[in-house]
Amino acid sequence: MSTPRRHRIDREAAERLLGAYERGSPRYPVRGVPARDPLADLLTEAAAVSPADPAGEEAAVAAFRAARVSVPHAARRRSMLARMLTLPAALALGAVAAGGLALAASTGVLPTPLHPGTAAAPTVNHRPTTPARASTHPGASAAASGLLGLCQAYDHHVGPERGRALDTPAFGDLVVAAGGKANVDDFCAGLLASEDATEPPMKSAPPSRTPNPHASRTPH
Amino acid sequence: MTESPARPGGSDDLAQAVDAARQGDEHAFRTLYRAVQPGLLRYLWFLVGDDAEDVASETWLQIVRDLPSFQGDGDGFRGWAATIGRHRAMDHVRRYRRRPAQPVPVEALTGLPAVEDTAARAVEVVATESAIALIASLPQDQAEAVLLRVVLGLSAEAAGQVLGKRAGAVRTATYRGLRRLAERMTVAPDPAGDGEIPVEMPRPRSPVPGQ
Question: Which of A88, B120, B125, B179 has the fewest CB atoms within 10 Å around its CB?
Fold first, then answer.
């Protein structure tokens, strides 16, 4: 091949050429691209397979594992809830599970920790720093079930949203039960851990997702 | 020049990998990484130069964090990863207020592991970086459109979503970019007469915030 040929490319030709690189396109992988076409060669080089990147891959996989390990328990429940329920429904389900629905139906008020609908066990609202005690009464009260639903819904949120969510009326009872917004993370951790005795206890750190070394997140 | 061999991560493969990774399947996540990282890194190199590896790491951290709430197939995942990468790149430039060093020598280009290079592989490496650099010398909107479509394999629609443009605008930008590249191919001298066209190494550009 001596001198490059004059290159004329129209829109159709451009789209045909690009189609070879489009992963969802039937022309992919890049085989039908005309040979000895400098432009096509250039694009093929740009898109060529590159060597493996084991270091970067292991770092990404480590982050992937960490994101799953930190909230394995809540994540399963959260995804199930997310698929089936909305927040108010989750609260109602908690109440139903504990037999509080009769009260709700009759008075139109869902039982809350402050107004337990059944003769239930420990009112957790005056034991903010020892959430584990609530869990030692395994016959989950209406209060505990409602709080569990709130904890699971709270866990939907990430980062600064978590604090803001606690300011909303929906989570007011959770904040009271935990004895303050600052205690909610620990309170929920204890509640979620005790909920399933076969699971290993949750770490004392508040549930969080991926450890993000870049603390300043730019909203976008 | 060589044809590329069949690449992993055709759109059907990735759709399954996406679903499995969302369920916590680590092997599936590796498949996603291997399919997307090379193109992502090259795109990021165009955007932030030497910092491409750092920005790529930040991008994967966010991908991992937000994966549970992602919905889409393989093409959607690629576009989503490119969008996150672009945002991270813009944040990076804003945060550090710096422009990539110029010019970028081939040896300093990131993204390639310190594996033993055979002569053949070294040639491949240089060829790929040269190709990216030539595309990078286009006007930014054309370069970005071409890169997203070629190295990340996005459709015009998917690339449009990354760039905040309509698919038609992306097609126009890619067409203009390819036309300009084609013109350069004919104009470039061929001193050795062996079909190899020497390539200038232009400065990678950083994205303009707000674009």
Answer: B120
Q: Which residue of A has its CA nearest to B172?
A: A11
Phi, psi of B179 (to 5 degrees): -60, -45
| B195: closest CA of chain A, how far (Å) | 6
pLDDT class for B12, splitting at 50, 70, 90? low
Identify the residue whose tokens are 């300009």: B180
Contacts of A206-209 with C-beta under 8 Å, sequence gap 24+, read A207/A70, A207/A71, A207/A74, A207/A155, A208/A70, A208/A71, A208/A158, A209/A67, A209/A70, A209/A71, A209/A158, A209/B65
Classify each residue of A181-210 as buried b or exposed e, where b means 16 or more C-beta atoms within 10 Å of its C-beta: eeebbbbbbbbbbbbeeeeeebeeeebbbb
**Given an 8 Å threshold on Cβ–Cβ distance, is A52 in contact with B78?**
no
Helix H or strand E encompassing A214: none
In chain B, the residue whose alpha carbon lies closest to the alpha carbon of A47 is B151
* DSSP reduced 3-state for A104: helix
Helix and strand totals (H; E) in chain B: 8, 0
State the pLDDT confidence band at A59, using cuts at 50, 70 and 90.
Answer: very high
Question: Can you tell me the distance from the alpha carbon of A18 to that of B156, in angstroms, rounded to the nearest whole number?
Answer: 9
Instruction: Kindly report whether the peptide bond that precedes residue A128 is cis, defined as omega within 30 degrees of 0.
Output: no
For residue B149, the chain A residues in CB contact (below 8 A) are 18, 21-22
At B19, give phi and psi (nearest 5°).
-60, -45
Distance of alpha carbon A61 from alpha carbon A64, whole angstroms:
5
Of the candidates A38, A35, A50, A21, the residue with the CA atom closest to the CA atom of residue B124: A50
pLDDT digits 0-9 by tens, B103-143: 444 444 444 433 444 555 556 667 788 889 899 999 999 99
Six token digits for residue A26: 């039937």
- Tell the residue number behind the tokens 């992937």, with chain if given: A64
User: Which carries the bigger pLDDT value, residue A216 or residue B177?
Assistant: B177
User: B153, A54: Cβ pair inside 8 Å?
Assistant: no
